[in-house]
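[job 4471] stage=fold_predict status=RUNNING
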Amino acid sequence: MTSPMSARTKTPWWRTSRAVLTAALAFLVVLMFVDTTFDSGDGDVPADTAVEYAKLNYEEFIVPGLVERARPVQELVADILADPQAAGEEFGRREDDGKPFSYAVAATGVVTEGPFGEVGLDVDGMPGGITVGVSIPPLGSAPGLRDAGTELTFGDFVNQTEYQRVAVEINNLAAEGVFADLDLTTMMGEQITVVGAFTWSSETGGEVTHVSIMPVSIEEGS
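[job 4471] inference complete, writing structure tokens
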């Protein structure tokens, strides 16, 4: 018979080193989510969630910034074609090295039929081979407004999902603000002026032949 003195006392599971380490890591993750504040450091208002960030900054920071920095699409595209890197560094913004640049842009043209998710925009003076479109709701998760309108980067967030959600929430506000009383699909042949952003990238990964503007402002007959 084993004596009480020699018997080995079993440590409760919740006091084992593995359990303590797991609990500590879980607590750290919770703190990361609770204490994370989204702030691009570019004059925007810090926020604790993607929804809050979009609501606090869309009208007061993102839209005015895009309007102020918007360049005519003809000039901007010509500069990009001439020297993509130089144009990006001077006029564009992007998440990180290796990612495509997004640009604040303005365009005046005639509404035409376009591919799914947008209408075409016939703009005089565009460089050869480049067409223009304007995105229509639902605007989805395209990052143009987020990237061109803020200095936020993936490193400001705890995960890719929350970072992407900022783009979604900004796009939702753009759709509500721009298209509440406007249906571009019924305006074929009419002239508009749009201010917004586009990302210089190709869906196929090849040469860019089309830019799709995510709008924050559309004026009719301009």
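[job 4471] summary: The radius of gyration is 24 Å.
[job 4471] exit 0
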